[in-house]
Amino acid sequence: MTQTRRNWLVAGAATMLAPALPAAAALPPVGRQVASLYRTKVGDIEVTAVSDGSISLPAAVFGEANLAEARRLLAENFMPTETPVPCALNCFLVNAGGKLALLDTGSGDALGPTMGHLPANLAAMGVTADKIDTVVLTHMHRDHAGGLCDKQGRALFPSSELVIPEVEAAFWFDETNISKVPQGSRGGFAYAKQVAAAYQGRIRRLPGGRDVLPGITSQDAFGHTPGHSIYRVHSGSAQLLVFGDMVHFPALQVRHPEWGISFDVDAQAAVATRRRVFDMAAADRMMVAGMHMEFPGFGHMRKDASGYHLLPAPWRPAL
Ligand SMILES: [Zn+2]
Question: Which domain holds residue 225?
Fold first, then answer.
């Protein structure tokens, strides 16, 4: 039977006239979101998106020249245009061959109360930091690496190996590079020093194209940071491209891949990389996962005459 809107209204009016029933126990609003976890399978490998939260950024991070078009696209996507725009932050837990690898650590306590929720979300699935065999970074920015150490500089992953892309480690572990990064990112050098001390003896510097673990292979995707890297998770013919910071606001940069963001160390290289990675994902029809895509962050890229399109993957209740 179909319910028309009119039927609903009539039913609503009837309810109002019904005799009062004994009051049920009041259920107060919970006031917070459920645990932000979502799982998918890549062949035999299980991948869980784990949210670290969300941070608000001004649309001006794409430059004053692009602001009018940015606001137009934000409005088109039902997003705020005048206030800072929410930017999601996802990490991915990969269970490959009995080993747990965590791709990025979230921001820890570096970026305020709307971020830093990774440990609570991991705990909701029964995973504590000591269960993680390998922590893997896409790059060293604080929203991705800030969960490695606490305020005192102690390691928050007591026994994990830490994998950092070779070029990324070489850059941030060398303070003479400080003048090469935007002012707002310079604290990254002091933090890198803390990380190097806290994880001494268990850091693996990984060149591009090598395996983190069987089933997880790195690829160079330089530009956003000097050694920014992406990871191909593969099992049989199934693959997933965890593509890090290819986009910060998907609603904007998928339509405008030529837009750099003010945190890019080399904006030109970042644009070239974005196009190359989008092309590869579209041509190979590969599922992608983005650290700043709306949670849970899985989707597919399509390319046609009007440009690139991102199709978020539908929620699947079964694996
Ligand atoms: Zn980021």
Answer: 34-312
